[in-house]
Amino acid sequence: MMHLLSSSISDYRKYRLLEVIPGLMVWATLILSIGLSFIAPIWVMYFIIAYDLFWLFRILYMFCFMIISYSRFRKTLRINWLERIRSLPGWERYYQLVFIPTYKEPYEVLRDSFSALKANRYPLDKMIIVFAGEEKDKDSFLEYATRIQKEFGASFFKILVTVHPSGVAGEVAGKGSNIAWAGRKAREFIDQLHIPYENVIVSSFDSDTCVHPDYFTYLTYTYATHPNPTRASYQPLALFNNNVWDSPALTRVISYSTTFWLMTEQLRPERMFTFSSHSMSFKALVDVDFWQSDIVTEDSRICLQCMMEYDGDYEVVPLYMPVSMDVVLGKTFRETIKAQYVQQRRWAYGVENFPYMVWNFGRNKRMPLIKKIRYIFNQLEGVYSWATAPILIFILGRLPIWVANHRQLTSVVTQNTPDILQVLMTAAMVGIIIQAAFSTSLLPPRPAKHSKMKLFSMIIQWVLVPVTLIVFGSIPAIEAQTRLMLGKYLGFHVTAKVRK
Fold it and tell me: Which of 337, 351, 453, 489 has its CA 20 to 30 A from that of 19?
């Protein structure tokens, strides 16, 4: 919205109308579902049965995608990517520019991330690390930066340390404004070295991101063999394994559910947005003037910025290579639950991309219409389903049955609906069993401090799926969309990192 404050009142009102649409759809659905359950419960039962069938088939084909994606993931890990890039002529010209933004994260978290960078197989003398801190935490950050330089400075080509000033007009304090500032500082350094922008591959990581040893070799091979590498972002698979053995079951289920969703999206790149840690060309980043600094979800917005810049000639390329991050974990269980909810609400605030797309796609006459429609529909349907589907399936689906029984309405559908829903839920359990099997195969080795029974708890934890879908899915999504609808915009809340 910041970019419209200086525009006409008419433009501001039009954009606000677009911000209202997702939340209005969600609340209209919930209110109608409750109201019609009392007015016409039989017809609502028909709808619920059809809706549950639709979601059952949708989940089944998503699991098929997940299995294929998992197979490609395992195959990718078996390949010697350093050997492959060495077979490419001129591969040595590529530099890796890695952003590690931080705000009050513990040193051990940062050290693990830098250790993983140091352990990767790409030549370290081709790696430029940008350690980006905030002025609000300047003293602590500079102390950590000194320790990082002392321990890792000699390992890489360069570690740049940047401090993002606080209180910059028009900015939302958070990761986006921090790395946008750091990106412009990095450009000054790259310009001094006269390195062509297209030879610099950017990776924007969270502070807890630990890369797989083959991440940069695989990324470079994918980039170098892409027909138009500067017109693409590269999205790895996010695993939340750093502290998975120490985290509670509830947050483990949420984290692995995110991983499985990303797996299904990898086979449908036309639907993909960049998420959390991702990579792209420095040339594209400079062309769009870096990450947008007045929003919360800069990670997904950056690919939309590029799509606008290049009139739709931009894509997200899936990388079947993992980066590992932290499961949400606080000092107490209560802090953990609160932090998990806040994180999910921030992710759900990606709904702010919907008005951006409609507003800007409509003004770009050169972007293919089919691409505009596909991205806008996928965005709107995604946030709508995120907010409504779990509540309709697990809660409101029972309301018309209760009303019909209370009124003693007798019909075939009234008598059979509970049995039909039970069959559908039983079929859905197959998906939960598959998730349990896949999640155990993705786990890192069990630390000695945890007993073998811990693995058993990681299998039965999947009975919590209905709870997580509602409490940490629908509810934060509804709040995020309601805030956008009412103009009560969210700021960026950093998820605290805790290691035991």
Answer: 337
